[in-house]
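hey all, quick one before standup. I had two proteins in the batch that finished overnight and I want to keep them in one place so we stop losing track of which output belongs to which input. First protein below, input sequence then structure tokens straight from the run.
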Amino acid sequence: MSAWLCSPNHIGEISSRSGQVSGYNPFTNERYDMDASTLAGLLAHQNLLSLQARYPDMWEEFLSPYEGADTTEKKTNFIWECQQRAKGLPRKNKQDCVGLIRSYRYQACETEDWIKSDVSFITQRILDSLYHDLVETTLWAYDEED
């Protein structure tokens, strides 16, 4: 697989669309509860961890567009930008946000603990909620007459 750094607009849009998130991670046996800005920071951090796992010798190059004297400062600035973009109302429609989340999940899944991470659960729950809103009915049984 491959990975790239999602933009602050990308991460901010997912976070602003989700708003406040809360839930339970059955792998860690811990609850999570956070606002959109905090979620954006968590998503940005996971994206960076994924890049580090996939490209251990060159992941820092993905941060080159961000201001900072060193990698730590660039990471901090990237995460801050993501959190700023999470403020306010979503700019994309729900269908577009489904694509953004699916793309994000692909970029953030390179860590060994991805499937057990809060980010995995949170983004899946956001997707489930959006699908529920976008799909009016659920086919419960196959009608042989159709």
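OK second protein, same deal, sequence then tokens:
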Amino acid sequence: MRMMGHNVLAIVVAAIAIYAIEFLIFAVLLPGDQYAAMSGYSAESMQAGMARMPFGVVPPILAAIGLSCAVKWRNKAGWMAGVTTGVIIAICFGVGVSLYSFIYGPNNAAFVGVNVAHFVACYGVAGAILGAWK
């Protein structure tokens, strides 16, 4: 199904892929105590944020929609073109977003590296999905 020239199923699958990769990185590979140390957030502040967890589905959906727009505007079909678009977007936006919490917040440099890798992996995979189904 298409909406305004975008493959809705591809957007949904890309959003699920982003969410799954984020879960793998931040819930499976990075233990909670290590995440707390790297991010600079206390266990109490993380526990207080648990009530907002259901809203965690929103960022991957918005990212998939934005990546779909970028893939469409780039006008190059194929999964490799999608990966390239995703990685470019990850570097241009993911690095900047990651640096905000490092410069103005509690994140340490190691967390910035993890977060940048997370953006590159998530947006690269989502871009591949969107490019393949363009």
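Flagging for whoever picks this up: The radius of gyration is 16 Å. Residues 2-132 form one domain.
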